[in-house]
Specification:
Residues 75-274 form the ABC transmembrane type-1 domain. With 290 residues, this protein is mainly α. It is built from twelve helices and no strands.
């Protein structure tokens, strides 16, 4: 006969569960409101009235934002910056980190010292802006990509992960006649797939949500990223297309806002659960040398 031990809940346990449930509801509530308003039919939409489920569902707000040139331009800009920026960040970060692990590389300690220095001291907004301007990158997508190819924290984590790889694998590859480039592509990269997956997600989320740099460096509205466009729509009430009312076939502004916010959140919310295990594993492997 087997006995199942069940812990008896105390008053403190019920209080903790109640507080956690309340905090969870507070965190989830804005998402429910955004989702509900974005799918509410314009004919039954009532400002500032909350529904867990819309009394009448409609995709009018989504059809409207996808029919506007400004929203489509922002999607194209954000997708380009995310794909190209993430790819270049992965290439630069892992190649530079691998170089910093090679103890026979001349000047390795000097470069590593510069990396650590930038981790402690940061130039600031104005010097960064002047550098971007002097390079002629203002109003260019590359102003959001080149300055962010890597960062000190990521380099240190990836370097620590690569240092933890068995050195015997590289030694055996050299005996077989492989050079450093072959070792990097045939041994280091395949063994680094958990870290690559983790930082691909990390970089992609950062690039997709890029806002402040885009606000500073991009003044051409046709090149705005999705986050800057949503800021103009939500805070500045900038119209996406022709102004009008629901009677003219244009949904209420609030439903359009919520639809745009939902559209911006959807890709990350969809992709993240599938890569979450790689994210946790990759960061932990890169954080501890073992």
């Amino acid at each position: 006969m087997s006995f199942v031990y069940r812990k008896r809940l105390t008053v403190a346990d019920w209080i903790n569960y109640g507080l956690l449930a309340t905090l969870s509801l507070i965190c989830v509530f804005p998402f429910i409101y955004i989702f509900s308003v974005s799918f509410t039919d314009p004919a039954v939409y009532v400002p500032l009235k909350f529904y867990f489920f819309p009394p009448k569902w409609s995709l009018d707000a989504y059809r409207y934002i996808l029919s506007t040139e400004s929203f489509l331009n922002s999607i194209k800009s954000t997708v380009f910056i995310t794909l190209v920026g993430t790819l270049l960040q992965i290439i630069v970060t892992f190649t530079l980190a691998y170089g910093l692990t090679r103890k026979d590389l001349d000047g390795r300690k000097i470069v590593l010292g510069f990396v650590i220095f930038t981790l402690v001291f940061h130039a600031g907004i104005v010097p960064n802006y002047l550098v971007v301007k002097s390079l002629g990158l203002l109003n260019s997508y590359w102003s959001l990509i080149w300055p962010n190819l890597t960062n000190a924290w990521t380099l240190i984590v990836v370097k620590s992960f690569l240092d933890s790889l068995p050195p015997e694998l590289e030694e055996s590859a050299k005996i077989d006649g492989s050079n450093d480039v072959g070792i990097f592509f045939k041994i280091v990269l395949p063994l680094s797939m958990p870290a690559i997956a983790a930082f691909t997600l990390f970089f992609a989320v950062s690039q997709w949500n890029i806002y402040f740099n885009a606000l500073i460096y991009i003044s051409d509205a046709k090149k705005w990223t999705l986050q800057v466009l949503i800021k103009a729509l939500v805070l500045d009430s900038t119209p996406l297309g022709a102004s009008g009312t629901a009677a003219d076939g244009i949904p209420p502004l609030e439903t359009v806002r919520m639809a745009a916010v939902t559209f911006a959140m959807a890709p990350i919310l969809i992709v993240y659960p599938f890569l979450q295990k790689y994210f946790a594993k990759g960061v932990m492997l890169g954080s501890v040398k073992g």
